[in-house]
Structures are given as C-alpha cells and as structure tokens.
Amino acid sequence: MGTRVARSTFMLVIALVFCSICPVVLLAAAVYFLIERLSHGYLMLSAEPRQGDAGGELFVQALKQVHTGLLIYVLLMIGVLGSNGFEFGLLLVPILFMVSWSLLSLESFLWPCLPLNQVMDLDDRDPPMTDATEVYEQLECREEIVQIVPQIVVSRASLTEAAVAAAAPTVAPPAMPAMPPAAAMSTTTTAATRGGGKAPEETGTASQEAEDLEF
Description:
The chain crosses the membrane at residues 12-35, 66-83, 90-111. Residues 180-215 are annotated as: Disordered. It holds the Pfam family RSN1_7TM. GO terms for molecular function: calcium-activated cation channel activity. Keywords: Membrane, Transmembrane, Transmembrane helix. By secondary structure, this protein is mostly helical. The chain has a domain at 2-48 and 57-114. 62% of the residues lie in helices and 0% in strands. It has helices at 2-17, 24-47, 57-83, 93-105, 116-120, 122-125, 129-132, 156-167, 181-194, 200-214.
C-alpha cells in the first residue's frame, strides 16, 4: 500500500512541477491517474485481501511530499522567469516563504490524537459493548430451532418376541430324581441281613439289653 501511495505522489509532483513548462504533461498525468484508479480499485475490492488501516500516516506523508514539490515548482518558475528576462522575478521569492510556512504548519497539527472534548464524548457516541461484540447473523439463517424428541423405533419382530417371552410360564429347574423302590428295598434287605434279619435299630437295642442283663 505504501509503494502505491509513493508512486502516485511522485507522478503528481512531476505533473505539478512541469505543468507550466510543458502543459502536455497534464494530459499524460490525467490518463495515468484514470488507469490507476480503475486498476487499484479492482485490486483493493476484488483481488487482494483486506489491508490494515494505517491511521492516516500515508496521507500525511503524501501531503508533505506534495508541499515539497510545490517548493521545487516555485524555485523552477523563478529560475525560468529570470532566465527569460522577467523583470519582477524577485517578487516571487516571498512565495517560497509562504509555501515553507504551510509545510511547517503541518507539523503543528496533532493529527494522530483526537481533541479532548471529542475523547470525552466517545462513550456517548459509540455503541455499547454488547452491540460491538455481537456476531452478525443473516436474517435468512435465523430459523427457529425445533427441539427434536428422540424416537425409539421398534420393529414388529421385537414386539412379537417380547410378547411371547412375557406370556410363557416360568419353568423351575428340574429336581433331583427320586430313588426307585427297588433300590430302596435292596438297601433295606442288605442292612437286615447284616443285622441278623432285623433292622439295624432293633438289633442294636437287643444287644444292649443283653449286655445289661449279663452285667
């Protein structure tokens, strides 16, 4: 951005210095600035990303350079008029002081800073912080958000399986099989044979009574 401003200022100073000696330079400068306006306007708006704001630094620098070009123009015209035998060429010397005073007066402006009365009114003129931090949203995108209730999809097969499982009776685990009568009889017979044809309980009681009598 700074190179473009410097190039444009240089072309303006050239046209300003030589406009009285060669007026054709004004036509060339007009064509140049027209092409520059079209090309730079396209580049800034369509082709290049957004540049940072210089805060007026480039404009103030270009203004000082144009004033310097005016000093060169006044000196050139005093010399040209004096060489052509102009008798009142010295009357143009005070113009040098006027242009110099205008150039020096630019330094007296506190252009980087705002006046105190404007600084005090900034809070009243600026929007509140909530508006400044608000995110821009296009109107077409501001649709009401519909709360979607989650739906449980149940198939017919799962419903059938659940109904069958609920209707089926609860089956207890199978119990241990009971001992068959034949096995029970064989066990009793074996015990009776060992005890002399009697049950184990009776045999034990009789032998205990016999021992008591002998004693």
